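ok so I'm stuck.
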Amino acid sequence: MSAETRPIPASQFALAIRDLPLETIYTKAHEIQNSISHLQRSNAQLKEYSDSIRNDGTLSGEVREQVGDRECLEAIEENERVIARQRERVGLLRAEVERRGRVWHEGDDEDDEEKSNGDATGQSNGVNGSGGKLSDEELRRQMMDRIGDEDDDDDGGEGGLHL
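replied:
not stuck anymore, here's the structure
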């Protein structure tokens, strides 16, 4: 068995998500965005560490060059490759949602978690459970279903919505 695992190609990922429920697609997008955020924070810490080694006058120039820059920069470069792959995955998830005729609502895909009004399932005000926004007619129909017929009320004919 190989010590190194390889991510599935983008074409296989796109094929694999075709049958997933929209809720799962949005959950996966949230997980990937979370991973991207962690990698970006890690890169910032690696760069800070590398800079501190490079600027440490108590170390020899050879140590500063070998330890600080090389290893940290390699890790940063690998993280950047992973981030690029993950952003591609989010783009594929978005394309799948749009292929189904739905509206993608996770913001601009990158670093927009704060802008999202919903949770990972895509549920928020004005958003239906399948990830799309409700039309005025659909919202009216759902409200009428919840209110029910006024004739069926046991409130003595007062009508209205009771919370």
